[in-house]
Amino acid sequence: MVPLPRVRLEPSTACCRPTHVNRSRRTTTALVATTAVGVATAVLWVAWPDWSAGRAHDEALALWESKEPRSYSFHVSSCSGMCWSCPVRIAVTDGVVTGVNHLGDEQCGQGSADLEKVPTMEDIFARAERGRSEDWVDSYEIEYDPVWGFPASIELKCPYGTPDCGSGIEVYSLRVQSP
User: Fold this and answer.
1) Number of domains into which the chain is organized
2) Domain with 58 in it: what CATH number?
3) In angstroms, what CA-CA distances link 101 with 107, 140, 158?
4) Are 156 and 134 in contact (CB under 8 A)?
5) Sheet containing strand 96-102, strands side by side
6) To 10 degrees, the CA torsion angle through 77, 79, 82, 87?
7) pLDDT single digits (tens) 47-62
8) Is residue 112 part of a domain?
9) Per-residue pLDDT tens digits for 1-20
10) Residue 56: count of CB within 10 angstroms of its CB
11) At what angle do helices 19-67 and 121-131 cross, to 10 degrees?
12) In a domain? residue 32
């Protein structure tokens, strides 16, 4: 047997770079990853209420549409800024307002209402959806009826310290005349 010649192997330069280069690359990677997680968290923190509110609105609207009666009536009381809460009973048939009864005292006024300006449930759903994105709205709280899905309470708030500002709607006493 012939002996093999001895070869001296030099260490590869790829594995023996100065440690400050490896540390720098690891630090940069960690910094980029931490920043990405921070940005994603911030985006979710800011956007999550709108996503969940939108989802709740869509689910409530789907519930209302699955059960929407042909003929119904309900009480609605609304206020914008500083005002009297003036409840009104609204009757709706086939999506059209057919009657309005004022239920408040003399400060609310007892005149006849323009039926085209009186809201149906669809209008109240639209108000709830629009209210979440109004420029003047600082925060909002919308509660939906668990059985029918309609917006039972809409409260839109202005920034703290803004005088005579805000809006609220309460819907209650739904009565179904014809499913």
Assistant:
1) 1
2) 2.50.20
3) 15, 28, 30
4) yes
5) 96-102, 88-93, 71-80, 167-178, 151-157, 139-144
6) -20
7) 445 567 778 889 999 9
8) yes
9) 667 667 665 555 555 555 55
10) 15
11) 160
12) no
Dihedral sign computed on CA atoms, order 18, 19, 24, 26? positive
Give the Cα-Cα-Cα angle 101, 132, 54 (nearest 5 degrees). Answer: 105
Q: Which residue has the higher pLDDT, 78 or 90?
A: 90
Find the length of the chain.
179
Q: Which domain holds residue 81?
A: 42-178
Is there a domain that residue 24 lies in?
Answer: no
Assess if residue 8 is contained within a domain: no
Beta strands 88-93 and 96-102, pairing class: antiparallel
Burial class (CB in 10 A: 0-12, 13-18, 19+), 25: exposed
**Selection from 115, 102, 113, 164 nearest residue 136 by Cα:** 164
Task: Measure the CA–CA gap between 122 and 154, rounded to whole angstroms.
Answer: 14
The residue written with tokens 């400050």 in the block is 20
